[in-house]
Amino acid sequence: MTETPQTPAFDRRMLEALVCPETHQRLEYDAEAQELLSRPTGLAYPIRNGIPVLLADEARKLD
């Protein structure tokens, strides 16, 4: 996903405060896919307009 002027960038400093809502463990940032990864749960949470959406219903399963 290419960043455009309409799409705010994700602030990487947020990673220090964000945790997986299910495991409460740190998340990995995938800049290319604009997702936060929770490997223990096998979920990838989307980042939309620079805002992480940490809802299991919105996450996709990791391959």
From TrEMBL:
UniProt superkingdom: Bacteria
GO cellular component: cytosol
Family annotation (Pfam families): Trm112p
InterPro entries: Trm112-like (IPR005651)
Similarity comment: Belongs to the UPF0434 family.
Name of the protein described by the UniProt record: UPF0434 protein D6850_15735
Organism: Roseovarius spongiae
